[in-house]
Amino acid sequence: MAIIEKELYLHTPKKTTYEITYQLINKINSNVKNSYYMYVKEHKLLVECFCGEIEFKDVVELKKEIEDNLKEVVKFNILVDIQEDISTLSIEKLDKFIQFYQNLEFSSKIGRMAVVTSTPTQVVRTMLFIDALKENNTPIKVFSSVKSALDWLNTGIDLNRVKSILENFKTPVC
């Protein structure tokens, strides 16, 4: 039995850096329900993902956490995936979020923002958000695929890496 255990131990693959990173991300984001992010430093890209029913307070908490963690970053782009967001957002809540967003310090550090959507409702909400933020002069576009969003952001990050990040966000933690 000891030989089999040793053999199993030796053949058990070690965790990759990505797996360890995702575990840390899940621990960091565990207090923010259905809202996730990861900053990819070498590409100056913030990847955000919103899944399921999102509460306004959760988004506020996430944005404050991002602002705290990216204080030293001068400029970055954002990829926001809301394809699995099923929230029903009233105009009042959207206005409240826009006012909150405009007051965030990091909003002036954003080079470009790409929002990936999958439903007409998500597109409409995003277009209202874009319209309200015209004065910020941050280029924001809506996309139906991660690939086209990444092409527009032009950060040089590999598509499969971003897809892997997003899949890890969307995979329930057991």
Automatic annotation (TrEMBL):
SUPFAM superfamilies in the record: SpoIIaa-like
Domain of life of the native organism: Bacteria
Transmembrane portions of the chain: none
Pfam short name (any one): SpoIIAA-like
Protein name: STAS/SEC14 domain-containing protein
InterPro entries named among the record's database cross-references: SpoIIAA-like, SpoIIAA-like_sf, STAS_dom_sf
